């Protein structure tokens, strides 16, 4: 059965209910793997031209699942079934929290957009750590998206992030510092160069795992430059562009709270990638996320400097086959332009040194 045939039925469900149902379905994997393995055969593209080694970690393909899909480490085994080459769990906070009041997620099919105000609802680091222990090391690289608790004051925010890294450094391949979500009051206020520099430096003092910083698409260019410089000064290992936007002008009928993801974020996220590439390409690997829903869009981000990609919202509107479609399309685009591997295409539109990435395909 094609996704288009059941999409209407899915959309009759509240978005959060539909997501919870998806979680329950994938939770059945261990009971009967054979019922699910056909998905990996259909969706996972294994081709040496898509492979890269970044931060000493092997990525079989560049497309990862963004944070928010698997908030609690319950769906990691679904990542390869959906075709992803890596993925994030979280956002994870030190203590469990229920998040913001419901309803807190809305879909806009006509704009292929989702708006959410979840507020880092998760089971807390202790529970999630135990879940990850059971599957780590996994067949794919797993990132932990980490955020402070809502009631943690700014002056103690660093302590939250330090605790998370200490707890999870044995069950995650990389960390994504989330201080760019619009759904925790005051969190984006931490996007200051001095705070970012101090935070990254202290986190790197307690782990040898890569530390990445996720940026907001709503930052002014001059602030982006300051924050990126602060992150680089602190020793950040990578930068992710971008989180959701609170620019409600990108869709005609927004809810006046939370952040918007999906197709309307495409241009803002792409512009941010190009800006950050001018500042950091060749210094640290870059990750693009936001509105990536086709091979052509993915390839544009790669040529603009992104070594890795992420998506989540396109799963909702294009179905579980979208990752495989993107990866197969990337191979065709690499062939068209005469590249032997994806790492050769990274930053092809930039006149800068090659990024700190090795190709596993030689």
Quick recap:
The chain has 362 residues and is an alpha/beta fold.
Describe this structure in words.
The mean pLDDT is 95. With 362 residues, the protein is α/β, with parallel strands linked by helices. It has an eight-stranded parallel β-barrel with strand order 3-4-7-8-9-10-12-13, surrounded by six helices. A three-stranded antiparallel beta sheet has the order 5-6-11, with no helix packed on it. Strands 1-2 form a two-stranded antiparallel sheet. The longest helix is centred in the last third of the chain and has 15 residues, at 266-280. It has helices at residues 3-11, 15-26, 34-43, 78-81, 125-133, 157-168, 193-204, 221-234, 266-280, 295-303, 313-318, 322-336, 342-345, and strands at residues 52-54, 57-59, 63-65, 86-92, 105-108, 113-116, 142-146, 174-178, 211-215, 238-241, 259-262, 286-289, 306-311. Helix 7 runs parallel beside helix 8 (221-234) and helix 8 packs across helix 9 (266-280). It has one domain: Aldolase class I (TIM Barrel). It is built from 13 helices and 13 strands.
Estimate the global geometry from the Cα principal axes. globular
Mean pLDDT across all amino acids: 95
Give, in spatial order, the strands making up the sheet with the most strands.
3-4-7-8-9-10-12-13
Q: Count the strands?
A: 13
Fourth-level CATH superfamily? Aldolase class I
Ranges where pLDDT stays below 50 over 5 or more residues in a row are none
Number of continuous helical runs: 13
> According to CATH, what is the topology?
TIM Barrel
The amount of helix comes to 25-40%
Largest sheet: 8 strands, parallel, barrel
Provide the succession of SSEs.
Answer: HHHEEEHEEEHEHEHEHEEHEHEHHH
Structural class: alpha/beta
* Radius of gyration using CA atoms only: 19 Å
């Amino acid at each position: 059965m094609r996704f288009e045939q059941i999409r209407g039925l899915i959309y009759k469900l509240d978005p959060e209910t539909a997501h919870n149902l998806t979680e329950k379905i994938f939770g059945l994997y261990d009971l009967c793997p054979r019922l699910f393995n056909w998905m990996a055969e259909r969706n996972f593209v294994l081709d040496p031209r898509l492979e890269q080694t970044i931060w000493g970690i092997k990525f079989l393909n560049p497309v990862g699942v963004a944070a928010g899909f698997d908030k609690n480490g319950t769906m990691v085994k679904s990542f390869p079934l959906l075709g992803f080459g890596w993925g994030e769990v979280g956002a994870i906070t030190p203590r469990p929290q229920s998040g913001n009041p419901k309803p807190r997620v809305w879909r806009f099919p006509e704009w292929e957009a989702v708006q959410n105000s979840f507020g880092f609802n998760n089971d807390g680091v202790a529970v999630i750590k135990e879940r990850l222990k059971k599957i780590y090391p996994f067949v794919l690289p797993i990132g932990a998206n980490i955020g402070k608790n809502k009631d943690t004051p700014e002056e103690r925010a660093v302590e939250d992030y330090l605790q998370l890294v200490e707890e999870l450094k044995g069950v995650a391949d990389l960390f994504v510092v989330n201080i760019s979500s619009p759904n925790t009051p005051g969190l984006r206020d931490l996007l200051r160069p001095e705070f970012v520099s101090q935070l990254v430096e202290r986190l790197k003092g307690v782990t040898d795992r890569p530390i990445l910083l996720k940026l907001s698409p709503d930052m002014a260019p001059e602030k982006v430059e300051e924050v990126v410089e602060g992150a680089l000064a602190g020793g950040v290992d990578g930068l992710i562009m971008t989180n959701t936007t609170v620019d409600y002008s990108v869709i005609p009928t927004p809810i006046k709270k939370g952040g918007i993801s999906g197709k309307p974020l495409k241009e803002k996220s792409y512009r941010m990638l190009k800006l950050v590439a001018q500042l950091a390409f060749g210094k640290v690997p870059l990750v693009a996320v936001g509105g990536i829903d086709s091979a052509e869009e993915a390839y544009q981000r790669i040529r603009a400097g992104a070594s890795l990609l992420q998506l989540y919202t396109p799963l909702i509107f294009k179905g579980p086959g979208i990752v495989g479609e993107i990866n197969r399309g990337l191979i065709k685009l690499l062939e068209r332009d005469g590249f032997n591997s994806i790492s050769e295409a990274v930053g092809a539109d930039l006149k800068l040194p090659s990024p700190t990435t090795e190709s596993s395909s030689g």
